[in-house]
Amino acid sequence: AMLFGPRDPSFFSHQTVAAIGHLACERPEQGLALALHSIALNSKWDSTYWVLIAAYTLLGRSEDAKVTAEKLVEIYPEASASRYDRVLPIRNESFRKTIITALKQAGVPD
Hints:
110 residues; 6 helices; 0% strand; mainly alpha
């Protein structure tokens, strides 16, 4: 989809999903790059923010993760680590725990 439909209005979502794949495969740099492209296309989708928070945390960029967490809560006041733990469709328990831990470390409410 990303190769054939870069003008697709939902292209940002494909980039975010690809970013999640990179994070799951322990490639946070590539995940971050795709998530940043996604957020540039649509800065209102909460999923891209949790991906950015995880990527920043995995890269040791805690200040960037905190700023991104503040933005997530600003655009999506219902955001919480416990909510994401319940709703994220990630079967790999270890990877999901990595995401949730990153959210908590960045200051997303529990």
